[in-house]
Amino acid sequence: MTWHPAYHDWVLAGDYAFAERYLKDAFIDVLVAHARTVAELPLSRGHQDELDALEAGLQSLRDAPLPPKPSDCPDLYFAFQRALESEVGPSAVGWLRLGLSRNDLDMTVYVMRARETSLARLRALLAVQAALVELAEEHQDTLLIADTHHQPGQPTTLAHYLCAQAAVVERDVERSLQALERLDRCPLGAAALAGSSHPLDRHAAARRLGFREPVASTYDAVAASDWQADVACVAQSVALSCSRLLCDFVAWAGKGVLRLDDALVQGSSIMPQKRNPVVLEHARTRCSRALGLAQAVILPSHNIPFGDLNDFGPDAQGALQTLHRLLLGALELTHACLRGCRFDTAALARQVAATDTTATELADELVRTAGCSFPEAHRAVAALVAHMARVGRPFNRAEPADLAAVGGPTLPADALRSALSPRAFVVRRDGYGGPAPVAVAVHLRALRERSGQYHGAVDGLTARIEAAQKSLRGSGKDAQT
Fold first, then answer.
1. Do 254 and 377 reside in the same domain of the chain?
2. Does residue 163 lie in a domain region?
3. Are residues 463 and 317 in the same domain?
């Protein structure tokens, strides 16, 4: 049949081009897995020649260029079927149609593509975390003033900040692995939605495709779209977390305390002095666009019947692919910036020295040494901050007389100097999770150990998928039973 030009141009042609570019190998893998499962049926005995010819024909499709989409052919599956019929005959292709619907075929291919892209993003996420950890290891003694509500808050270290960011990334790694675990179920064998009356072994088919197990309900296998929302929600979390890191790096670059490698900046067409940190901006915009695309994946599944539909099938795949490309780009650009940046520790030290951010520690010292309650100490230190500003002297140069002048208690000079020291502020905070180098070292060690576990999980799943692909793309029989 010839399709209406509007339907062909706006739907079928685009879906065909997308499938040819991104899904061809997965389609063939699924068809081979199904053909091998059909070959195990009792009724296939005596037809081995046809089944062997069918698999040979499927394998030959891998390297054969696809012709432009025929005007009377709706999708890639029917294009494959037509090519197979011309090569091995309709009778052999008939075995491929047994117990197979485009519903479970398409959904299996879409899940396999999501699994592949999710693994790629997870590897990029782990690379970002490793870069954060390595940068933190270099800066365990680099003091930094952390802001609260866009104002200088308290001294910490750059390593403390970077470890906190690495912990956020770690949670996104865990979310990614959890989503992959839920994605590790195969829809194949569900047919249209009720499965098949032929005793097709869905567990064997799932193993052939590198899945842990089949989807438990054949209805669920073709009707559910929550797995796509799952992937999109994880992507949203990654984009949100990554964008906050990038926002800080852009600000630090603007203040001159962070310098990117020359390969990551651009000059100006008119201002000779400029070194614009454009890669940070491009990474940040990709995070923003990924957030929008995540909604484009999720919203088509809102308020629709529970069944096989185009809303979350072919119509959602372009958004999923674009979301993947945007987020992968953001992660790889961020990784390049983390590997190719240098902090001006002297400039950071000057910023630390010029603030009054040790006020909290002075209040704590008044509680310890002078016997004040914390509210009393808080009021005295606030008055001292205002006094030092009035007299035009840095807060960290306050003397016991200055404290006495605002009605504060007597404090020995050495105790006052120690309480006003940003370095002492950090070192004293050596409890679990604190900024002191000894505490940060504990956190870094734990991050590295858990990262090894995450890499092991990724490598294990990757190896299982690659082993399945090797078998499916080999010369015939596999070892599945």
1. no
2. yes
3. yes
Number of domains in the chain: 3
Same domain, 180 and 313: yes
Mean of pLDDT values over 31-57 = 96
Across residues 401-408, what is the average pLDDT?
94
Shared-domain flag, residues 198 and 116: yes
Higher pLDDT, 429 or 71: 429
Q: Contact 320/296 with Cβ under 8 angstroms?
A: no
What pTM was estimated for this model as a whole?
0.93
Residue 287 lies in a domain: yes
Asked if residue 479 has pLDDT above 70, the reply is no
Q: The domain containing residue 446 runs over which residues?
A: 107-347+442-468
Q: Are residues 135 and 204 in the same domain?
A: yes
Give the pLDDT of residue 478: 62
How does pLDDT run across 298-314, given as a tens digit for each residue? 999 999 999 999 999 99
Domain match, 189 and 303 both: yes
Q: Are residues 94 and 113 in the same domain?
A: no
What are the pLDDT digits (tens) for 339-364?
Answer: 999 999 999 999 998 989 999 999 99
Give the pLDDT confidence score for residue 71 in this predicted structure: 78
Q: What is the reported pLDDT for 481?
A: 41
Same domain, 216 and 297: yes
Residue ending a domain, among 98, 116, 142, is 98
Q: Is residue 476 one of the residues assigned to a domain?
A: no
Listed in sequence order, the residues at least 6 apart from 189 whose beta carbon sits closer than 8 Å to its beta carbon are: 37, 99, 104, 195, 196, 200, 202, 205, 214, 218, 221
